[in-house]
Specification:
InterPro entries: P-loop_NTPase, Thymidylate_kin-like_dom, Thymidylate_kin_CS, Thymidylate_kinase. The protein is α/β, with parallel strands linked by helices. The chain has 9 helices and 5 strands; from the N terminus they run βαβαααβααβααβα.
Length: 212
């Protein structure tokens, strides 16, 4: 990394389905760009890639696949973009990521037929987020939101298992945010945390993700 260029931050939004991740990711990028801070959005799964197209067929119930294969496909989808993520960060671009490795681990392990630790393995070595903001939303609020139930994992019982699994990620970079706030208030709260993180990491190296 060229030391004369201050790197961007790797910011991840996590949460159960319909918690507002996509909306807030878009709004954060817009807000940062208005502040003349280079920022781009990435979403996982990235359904535009070869692997992503298979994932899309699976999520929309067009095909069936074994659970371990599905997990490895989701992880491989992140690895497809690994070099591009590093390139953008090192060029000074802040990336706002809608779902990342944490989603992969908690969704697969919520099926309760695959060990949590096994799910973590394929994620090790990916770029480590500088900040993960978990958008917390009750199952009652989740079920009220438009489109809930359209895809494979969108049922309240399963989402409750996913939510519980997220509790296993506790570190200084993983924080919980109340997602039931109105959209603009939530955006402002998230933006303040993002700006603080961008300033904090600008002269630091990008670490690698290691799940213990």
């Amino acid at each position: 990394m060229t030391k004369s260029i201050m790197r961007g931050a790797l910011i991840v939004l996590e949460g159960c389905d319909r918690s507002g991740k996509t909306t807030q990711s878009t709004k954060l990028v817009e807000a940062l760009n208005k502040l003349n801070i280079p920022a781009k959005k990435i979403s996982f799964p990235d359904r535009s890639t070869p692997i992503g197209s298979i994932i899309n067929d699976y999520l929309s119930r067009k095909i069936e696949l074994p659970d371990r294969s599905v997990h490895l496909l989701f992880s491989a989808n992140r690895w497809e973009l690994e070099s591009e993520i590093r390139k953008q960060i090192e060029a000074g671009v802040t990336l706002i990521v809608d779902r990342y490795s944490y989603s992969g681990v908690v969704f697969t392990s919520a099926k309760q037929c695959i060990d949590f630790k096994w799910c973590c393995g394929p994620e090790n070595g990916l770029p480590k987020p500088d900040l993960v903001m978990f958008l917390k939303l009750s199952s009652e609020e989740m079920a009220k939101r438009s489109g809930f139930g359209d895809e494979r994992y969108e049922n309240v019982e399963f989402q409750n298992k996913v939510d519980k699994n997220y509790d296993r990620f506790t570190n200084e970079n993983f924080i919980q945010i109340n997602a039931a706030q109105d959209i603009s208030t939530l955006t402002n709260n998230l933006l303040n945390k993002v700006l603080t993180t961008i300033d904090f990491v600008k002269n630091k190296e990008l670490d690698e993700l290691v799940f213990n």
